[in-house]
Each structure stands twice: as C-alpha cells, then as structure tokens.
C-alpha cells in the first residue's frame, strides 16, 4: 500500500486489536535496525503491547499505518517508556510518527511523568535524528547491548530531575 496525498490519516488510541498490531509489526519488521524479528518474537511482542501498553495509532482506509506504543506503569511515576515507533513502508515521511509521538508525550505529561524514555540502535541514524528533533537526548547505553542508546526527554522542562 502506498500513501496518497488525498487520503486522510485518522488518529486513535487503543483501538487496534491484537491481530492488527501483529500484522502491522510484521509488515514493519524490516524497517527496524536490526530487523524486529531478530530482536523479539513478534507474536509475543504484539501480545505484550496489546495487553500492557497504551497504543497511539494512525489509520488510513482501515489499515494501521502508524503505531507508537508505550508503558505508563512505572510504580514510582517517574519514567514512562516508549517500546515501539513504527510506520508502514510507503507511509514514512508524512509526519505520522511525529504526531503519534507527540500524542504519547502529551499523554505522559498529563499523567505527571517527568521523563519519557526509549531505546534505539545507534546504527539507526534516521530514528536517532527523529528522536533528537522531538526533544530526546542520549542519556546512556543499554547495559545488555552497548549498541542500544537510551534516550530521554524531559516532559517538565522547568523541573530539575
């Protein structure tokens, strides 16, 4: 499926079924660096997202074209975590991921999380640049994989974290 300028993206939250999330992740798997199927069991990951994450969704003609999923369940209420940002091939560059990420940031902010965190492979320069453009900074590396950058954004810029 290719994006067409005449189509309109519909943005929703938590409406995608497990099957739709799984289909979306499978279609996007090759866009991840490294490919998603090399780092997770996609079927189990889709189930975990559907059961435990809040999903921010972009739809075109009934197809889930963009998905941001995050965990907003830190018992201390300090850090929310984005586990997935994906857009179907053919729909990248249209601003879908940016709008979904901004919605997730607003969601975290209204729930009084001071920090939103994500992880990205250092080789995924396009994603790193995208996250920096949206206010994320590299704060470290994942202990179990040095190639994975940990990136945070301060959701309450006036506060000292």
Short description:
The protein is 29% helix and 32% strand. With 161 residues, the chain is of the alpha+beta class. Helix 3 (96-110) links the parallel strand 4 and strand 5.
Structure explained in plain terms:
The protein is of the alpha+beta class. It is built from four helices and seven strands, in the order E-H-H-E-E-E-H-E-H-E-E. It has a seven-stranded mixed beta sheet with strand order 1-2-3-4-5-7-6. Helix 3 links the parallel strand 4 and strand 5. It starts with 9 loop residues before the first strand and ends in a 7-residue tail after the last strand. The mean pLDDT is 93.
Distance between the termini: 43 Å
Shape: globular
- Total strands: the figure is 7
> Mean pLDDT, as a whole number?
93
Mind sketching the topology for me?
Layout: E1 10-13, H1 18-28, H2 42-52, E2 54-60, E3 63-71, E4 79-87, H3 96-110, E5 115-121, H4 125-133, E6 137-142, E7 145-154
Parallel strand pairs: 4-5
Antiparallel strand pairs: 1-2, 2-3, 3-4, 5-7, 6-7
Keywords:
4 helices
């Amino acid at each position: 499926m290719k994006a067409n300028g005449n189509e309109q993206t519909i943005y929703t939250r938590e409406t995608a079924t497990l099957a739709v999330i799984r289909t979306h992740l499978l279609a996007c798997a090759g866009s991840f660096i490294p490919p998603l199927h090399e780092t997770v069991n996609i079927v189990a990951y889709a189930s975990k997202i559907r059961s435990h994450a809040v999903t921010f969704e972009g739809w075109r003609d009934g197809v889930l074209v963009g998905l941001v999923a995050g965990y907003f369940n830190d018992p201390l209420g300090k850090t929310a975590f984005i586990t997935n940002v994906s857009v179907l091939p053919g729909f990248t560059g249209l601003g879908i991921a940016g709008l979904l990420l901004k919605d997730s940031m607003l969601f975290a902010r209204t729930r009084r999380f001071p920090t939103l965190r994500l992880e990205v492979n250092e080789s995924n320069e396009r994603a790193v640049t995208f996250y920096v453009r949206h206010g994320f900074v590299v704060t470290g590396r994942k202990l179990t994989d040095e190639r994975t950058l940990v990136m945070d954004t301060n959701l309450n810029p006036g506060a000292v974290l």
